[in-house]
Amino acid sequence: MTPESIADILRKHELWLADEPGGERADFSQQNLNDIEFVHISLAGANFGYCNLERSNFTDSDLSGADFFSATLTGANFTNAILDGADLRGTIFNDANLSNASLVDALMKRGLSFNEGSESSPTSIPLEMRDANLNGANLNGVEATGADFSGASLEGAVLAGSDFSDADLSNTNLKSADLDGADLSSTDFTGANLQNASLRSTYLVGANLSTANLDGADLTNAQQHDEIQENGKLDIQTTINDHKKWINGEGGKRAVLDSIDLHSADFTEADLSGAVMRFCNFSGTNLQNIRMVMADVSDCDFSDADLSGAVMCGAILQRASFRNSNLTNADFRAAEILNANGSKIGKQQPTDLKDSDFSDANLTGIKLGNAVVSGTILV
Question: At 225, is the pLDDT very low, low, confident or very high (cuts 50, 70, 90)?
């Protein structure tokens, strides 16, 4: 792109932000803008998807709600930048400087990349923040499931209420960081420095803290084991109620129940959207009208279960078994992706049914839409 064309895009974007005639949202998608200078300007809502922005400079700029899906930002400078609500799925920030940046409610979880014109399955791409500088950054409420922050420095950063489940935080510097209420299930903290960090009411089930420095860390009310009733069974109703509160932003706790036997439980009309329940046994379970929108229930056994009226839009269901189950009017269509304000952003997450088995299931009225069905048995 020429300097003149970039200047014209910026001029029209400014008009677009002001809702004035002639305005047009800035679209830099798939462009090569390495070493570009975008300092102290407003590019809120701009599109940088799949853009090359290595060593770019966004110091003091407003990028709230911007789309950086699968962009390459190695060595970029975002000091004091605002990235609240930005789409950062699959973005590469290795060696980038995001010190004192605001990333409140940014979307950092794995993205699905589709090869145009190809019938192959989409590729799952995690966000990469390896060796990045996030000292003093605000990551309150971010979704960073499976993200790679290995070697990054987050000293004094705020990660309260965030979701870093399955993330790689090995060898990170989290000294004096605020992680209160964060979901850190199955997170790798190998070699991490958590000295004087606050981990109050965090969810640490499955997290690896074996070689982490926890000197002075506050683990008050942190949960490191699944809560089990006296009879040795999970309190399902409490789990459902806590998860509903989490969905509604009323505190609560996200349901993370890997490898649990749930075959005798009743989940009728339960809302477990966004839950993580991999390798669970739901065989013969009553799941009528359940909602599992964008939940991760891969490798689960739903054989002989009643899933009539179930809504599983955008869910990850790889290698799941639905053999002989009742899926009458079940909905597996794509889920609308919403921003931090709950508004649609024009993107969808398809349901991933790769290598799942629907042998002998009742598929009357089932809605598949554009679900990923490579390797799926549907007979």
Answer: low
Half-sphere exposure of 290 (CA within 13 A, CB side): 26
Q: Domain 236-379 belongs to what architecture?
A: 3 Solenoid (2.160)
How far apart CA 260 and CA 239 sit, in angstroms, is 13
Copy the structure tokens of residue 8.
């014209």
**H and E: helices and strands count for the chain:** 2, 4
| Token pair 């606050």 in the structure block, residue | 198
Name the band, by pLDDT with cuts 50, 70 and 90, for residue 376.
very high
Give the amino acid at 151: G
Alpha carbons 232 and 147: distance in angstroms, whole number: 33
285: left (phi over 0), alpha (psi -120 to 50) or beta: beta
Task: Name which of 378, 347, 372, 376 is nearest 118 in CA terms.
Answer: 372
Q: For residue 56, what are the contacts with CB-CB under 8 A and spacing of at least 6?
A: 33, 34, 35, 36, 37, 38, 73, 76, 77
Residue 232's pLDDT is 44
Residue 134 confidence (pLDDT): 98
φ/ψ of 27, rounded to 5, equals -125, 100
Q: What are residue 102's phi and psi, to 5 degrees?
A: -105, 120
Locate the domains of the chain by residue range.
Answer: 236-379
